[in-house]
Design a protein that fits this description.
The chain has 288 residues and is of the alpha/beta class. It contains 13 helices and ten strands. The strands form two sheets. Strands 1-4-5-6-7-8-9-10 form an eight-stranded parallel barrel, surrounded by five helices. Strands 2-3 form a two-stranded antiparallel sheet. Helix 3 links the parallel strand 5 and strand 6. Helix 2 runs parallel beside helix 3, helix 4 runs parallel beside helix 6 and helix 9 packs antiparallel against helix 10.
């Protein structure tokens, strides 16, 4: 479990998933050497999709990637273990290569609850499971010790997307276990991989997949100078894409770049403020 991975946006048209544009976006990722696509994660607005829409997005991703070198890491997270298992089983049945499952949100489970949640989820399927630690969104933390316990005791738990912002977690996990640590924060992609991480699940890759692929592949080959240079080159973009809640800025950027035909979000997400729009437009001129 390693490489350049794109946290796909979900385009909408007239309030529904724009399947035609979605397919086109995935094909663009494949053409630009992305190793894995990640449909229906946070960036894909999974929290506001219906379960039928969620499943359809996984289906489309698998269909489009079939026969290519790009694999599918399907989002299958929920605050309900039962619902997460349902999504995971569907992803496996449809041919996803692995699942990404966010720590249960809102419930604020204990570390025992988090362990039991992931144990039940992983045991319900045979494909690999990637944990997703993002305390800023979930109000729950997958602690380093819990991650190591899950990795050591459950065979198909193979990786963790680290989006806590703590490089110390990456160092600890790499030092104490063999779990693959994947960056979940574009601003620190290079530091995480240089510290032993195995790749990134990137928001910026929606816009610049080839750059992200080059950054990751260089670092994994030991060419840290090239990787660092790209990470620093992308600093302004990575920063502006998080001036409002993800995926608000990246969807606007994709619209401005002509990569999606309409700018639609699912409430409670709304378009960026006029001030944010101008900041995004200004930064985009540097990269497009």
């Amino acid at each position: 479990m390693q490489g350049a991975m794109t946290a796909l946006i979900t385009p909408f048209k007239d309030g529904k998933v724009d399947e035609e544009t979605y397919e086109r976006l995935i094909k663009r990722q494949i053409e630009n050497n992305i190793d894995w696509i990640v449909p229906v994660g946070t960036t894909g607005e999974s929290a506001t999709l219906t379960h039928d829409e969620h499943k359809r997005c996984i289906e489309i991703a698998v269909e489009v990637c079939k026969g290519s070198n790009t694999k599918v890491l399907a989002g299958a997270g929920s605050n309900s273990t039962y619902e997460a298992i349902d999504l995971a089983k569907f992803a496996e049945e449809k041919g996803a290569d692995a699942i990404l499952s966010v720590a249960p949100y809102y419930n604020k489970p204990t570390q025992k609850g988090i362990y039991e949640h992931y144990k039940a989820l992983a045991n319900s399927i045979e494909i690999p499971v990637v944990l997703y630690n993002v305390p800023g969104r979930t109000c729950s933390v997958i602690e380093v010790e819990t991650t190591i316990k899950l990795f050591n005791e459950i065979e198909n738990i193979v990786a963790i997307k680290e989006a806590s912002g703590k490089v110390e977690n990456v160092v600890a996990l790499c030092a104490k276990s063999g779990i693959s640590v994947i960056s979940g924060d574009d601003a620190i992609n290079y530091p995480i991989i240089a510290s032993g991480g195995k790749g990134t699940i990137s928001v910026s890759a929606n816009l610049l997949p080839k750059k992200i692929a080059k950054l990751v592949n260089a670092a994994l080959k030991g060419d840290f100078l090239t990787s660092r240079e790209i990470n620093e080159e992308l600093y302004d973009l990575n920063k502006v894409l998080f001036i409002e809640s993800n995926p608000i800025p990246i969807k606007f950027a994709m619209y401005e770049a002509g990569l999606i035909p309409s700018l639609e979000y699912r409430l409670p997400l709304t378009p960026p403020s006029k001030e944010s729009q101008e900041k995004i437009k200004k930064v985009l001129k540097k990269y497009l």
